[in-house]
Write a structure and sequence with these properties.
The complex is a heterodimer of chains A (about 240) and B (about 550). By secondary structure, chain A is α/β, with parallel strands linked by helices. Chain B has about 550 residues and is mainly α. Chain B folds into two domains: about 250 residues, no CATH class; about 240 residues, no CATH class. In chain B, helix 5 packs across helix 6. Classes of the chains: A alpha/beta (about 240), B mainly alpha (about 550). Chains A and B meet through helix 2, helix 3 and helix 4 of A and helix 10, helix 11 and helix 18 of B.
């Protein structure tokens, strides 16, 4: 279980995230939606330890990212909104690097790299420098590097941007696979159709504040997620389910 | 269309002086004036060098009626300057231009695109050639006897030289494009060529007077040989001095060469611009490629890969290390000469106290060179937008710092040790003093490694667009390099003016060793405690 308790992150005198609380249970795919600059990326970066936050607590299976960062980081994989990877490495060197950090055994990494790289159709490109990759290929490599160490939790910022329809479909399958094995997925997206069809729960954030969260049915009722989102964002509602 | 494209390209060249290359924004007037002044200063320096060579050749050759030989020599120098100045611009403008795709997508005839670019190449060749040809003509008009035809011919030959230079530029630019497309280890080849150029430049620079004097002394013999055995070159020289027939012949030959060049290019230009030959695709073999290593080894190999894949990283923070290894070999070869100089009566007469500090000199030299090894100083900044990778993974920041330090040790320590040992041998120091000198040099390298990392943790810049910004222009790098040189001067002055009478140089070396060991330990403690905090806040 991932718990975000009263998370607050301030930039200068602006609260990017304001007293945000969420719980992501095992087996859940949780969507995090909001307009540009709402605080989604800041929340995700705070969860991963990339950003330090001012108040609150983030717990992975009861362990705090502040107090036990290495233990928490062993549990999750993070995919940023822009796949800035090491251009001076080849694809396989990058995957080996990630697998080395997570101490993935030779046989496991060989099997997983083959499985994911062939599914995303970049296996034949793995010996090439990342600098020669297209945006989509970099995004695929970032996804594979996240999956290669079999994380319990996946934290993803706009993971479908740049992926072709087939790769996006495969990623959704793997997301479900992670959840079926007792993990959880927390991801931000602007593609509301995907969120509606794929996710078990959803949270809507506006100007750093959580304005609605709950199961998909609780949040959208009989309407579409898009309609609910637009209504909430326009009205500036401050309802928490 | 030709005029429109020409205007666009000329504006692009003009923007080189007024716009920031990274942001594309207009520079402040002060910066523009400074930038233009620097370029004018470079051009003026070359112009004055041209005046020097012209007067050296002119003085002798005009007296013995070898005006034509003077022009052959100066013509060759002029063409070389034109070629050197514009070949890389031609390469980037003709074959690697960023606007090639855009221009091709528009309803513009390919031949027009090519014609404009070749014309610009010709103009650039003229500009670079003029820097050397202007002094050639000034000296000729001032000191030699001319006729009306020699004045006109020498002026017209400027355009002939420009034609030949630009034709050669197009061919050389094509070869560079071809080679750079096919190279597999571009970084190493570029570093190798850069070093070759660096050493070649200094080799010629220190010997240029000798070569020029040799040409002047033997000019008459060379001229006779050319007259007898190389008629084409002989006619080329006469084309400058008023022989209209030779001028027409040279102009025709240059035009033919240029036209042939243009014809071949125009037949292949579209193919050249649109076909990316690229590198041969490397085949992925899972069994060979999937390898395991420890976290520390993985972090170190990541740092090493970054270093070896970046020309800027290797040639700037790594240059000192390369120079130290080369220096060590040079010192071993010239050990007797160095030893003779140190013990020479002339030196001892000039500086009677030199023998008391002689054992400090190897260290001073090594410290100066080692201060140029600034690998850790930009290493945090170089993470740039990729910093999320290390920060989101289960890695203790201390392991990241250690990997960065280990890279500098791996690159810098061998050269530091070798150069110190070689200098100690050349200076005939005893074994104990040599051993302590080596240890002190190593301690200094350990210190600047940690100190550079500390400075970068205190002053990081992750927002760069071009990695040469943290590598070449950041304060941590400046402090390590220039501060290192200042430390050498300070430590030298401290000993010379205050301590020389009280402690032996050998004792001073031991004191320095302990000083740098303690300073390294203190810096490392800071990195382990405060450095981690700074890293987390990045």
């Amino acid at each position: 279980m991932i718990e975000i308790k009263n998370l607050t992150k301030v930039y200068g005198d602006k609260k990017a995230v304001d007293d945000l609380s969420l719980t992501i249970d095992a087996g859940e795919i949780y969507a995090f939606i909001g307009h540009n600059g709402a605080g989604k990326t800041t929340t995700l970066k705070s969860m991963t330890g990339i950003l330090q936050f001012d108040e609150g607590e983030i717990l992975f299976d009861g362990k705090s990212i502040k107090d036990a960062p290495l233990e928490c980081k062993r549990m999750f994989a993070y995919i940023p909104d822009n796949p800035d990877l090491y251009d001076f490495m080849t694809g396989i060197q990058y995957l080996n690097f990630i697998a080395d950090i997570f101490e993935v055994s030779q046989s496991d990494r060989q099997e997983r790299i083959h499985k994911y790289a062939s599914a995303f159709e970049i296996e034949s490109n793995l010996a090439e420098l990342i600098s020669s990759y297209s945006h989509g290929m970099k995004q695929k490599l970032a996804v594979i590097s996240a999956l290669v160490h079999k994380p319990k939790y996946m934290l993803m910022d706009e993971p479908f941007v740049g992926l072709d329809p087939k790769a996006a479909h495969i990623l959704k399958e793997y997301m479900r696979e992670v959840c079926n094995e007792g993990g959880a997925i927390f991801f931000s997206t602007h593609v509301l159709d995907v969120a509606e069809r794929l996710c078990d729960r959803v949270a809507i954030i506006k100007e750093g504040k959580l304005i609605k969260s709950g199961t998909m049915e609780e949040v959208k009722g009989d309407e579409s997620l898009e309609e609910v989102f637009l209504e909430l964002v326009d009205e500036g509602a401050d309802v928490n389910v | 269309m030709f005029k429109l494209l020409l205007k666009k390209h000329l504006m692009e060249i003009g923007s080189f002086f007024v716009k920031d290359r990274k942001t594309g924004k207009k520079q402040s007037p002060g910066k523009i004036i400074l930038f233009v002044s620097l370029w004018l200063l470079v051009a003026f320096s070359l112009f004055m060098a041209g005046m020097g060579i012209s007067s050296l050749f002119g003085k002798t050759f005009f007296m013995i009626g070898l005006d034509w030989f003077y022009f052959i020599m100066m013509g060759l120098v002029t063409m070389f300057m034109g070629l050197l100045g514009s070949v890389f611009l031609t390469f980037s403008m003709l074959y690697k231009a960023k606007d090639n795709d855009l221009l091709l997508s528009m309803p513009i005839n390919t031949n027009t695109i090519l014609a404009v670019k070749v014309f610009i190449t010709f103009l650039l060749s003229l500009v670079f050639s003029a820097i050397f040809y202007a002094p050639t003509l000034i000296y000729y008009y001032a000191k030699a006897d001319q006729t009306a035809s020699s004045v006109i011919c020498s002026l017209l030959m400027f355009f002939v030289l420009g034609l030949i230079s630009s034709a050669l530029c197009c061919v050389l630019g094509y070869l560079i494009a071809l080679i750079s497309n096919r190279l597999r280890n571009k970084t190493f080849v570029t570093v190798f060529i850069s070093l070759l150029f660096f050493f070649g430049y200094y080799y010629v620079y220190f010997r240029i007077n000798k070569y020029l004097s040799y040409i002047v002394a033997n000019g008459e013999i060379f001229a006779q040989n050319i007259k007898g055995k190389a008629k084409l070159i002989y006619w080329f020289g006469h084309a400058f001095t008023g022989d209209v027939g030779c001028l027409l012949g040279c102009a025709a030959a240059a035009t033919l060469l240029f036209a042939l060049d243009y014809f071949v290019l125009s037949r292949n230009y579209l193919k050249l611009m649109t076909t990316n030959r690229g590198e041969k695709k490397t085949e992925y073999v899972a069994e060979k490629s999937v390898k395991t290593s420890s976290m520390n080894a993985a972090l170190f190999s990541k740092e090493m890969r970054h270093f070896t894949k970046s020309v800027a990283y290797m040639l700037n923070p790594g240059l000192g290390a390369i120079l130290m290894v080369i220096g060590a070999v040079f010192v071993m070869i010239k050990a007797d000469t160095i030893s003779g100089f140190i013990t020479s009566k002339t030196l001892v007469a000039m500086l009677p106290d030199v023998t008391s500090v002689v054992s400090l000199l190897p260290l001073a030299a090594v410290f100066l060179m080692a201060s140029m090894v600034t690998i850790t100083a930009p290493s945090i900044s170089l993470e740039g937008r990729n910093i999320w990778i290390l920060k989101s993974m289960p890695i203790d920041p201390r392991a990241v710092f250690e990997s960065k330090k280990r890279l500098q040790y791996a690159v810098g320590l061998p050269g530091t040790f070798l150069l110190t040992a070689a200098l100690c041998y050349a200076f005939k120091l005893d074994i104990m003093t040599s051993a302590f000198a080596c240890l002190t040099a190593v301690a200094y390298m350990l210190f600047i490694t940690s100190f550079g990392l500390m400075l970068n943790l205190l002053m990081p810049n992750l927002e760069w667009k071009d990695e040469t910004v943290p590598i070449k222009q950041s304060l941590p790098v400046m402090i390590i390099m220039f501060g290192g040189w200042a430390v050498v001067a300070g430590l030298g002055a401290l000993y010379w003016f205050l301590l020389k009478e009280h402690i032996a140089a050998e004792t001073y070396i031991k004191l320095l060793m302990w000083f740098f060991i303690i300073a390294t330990a203190v810096t490392n403690i800071w990195i382990d405690k405060k450095g981690v905090k700074h890293w987390n806040e990045l």
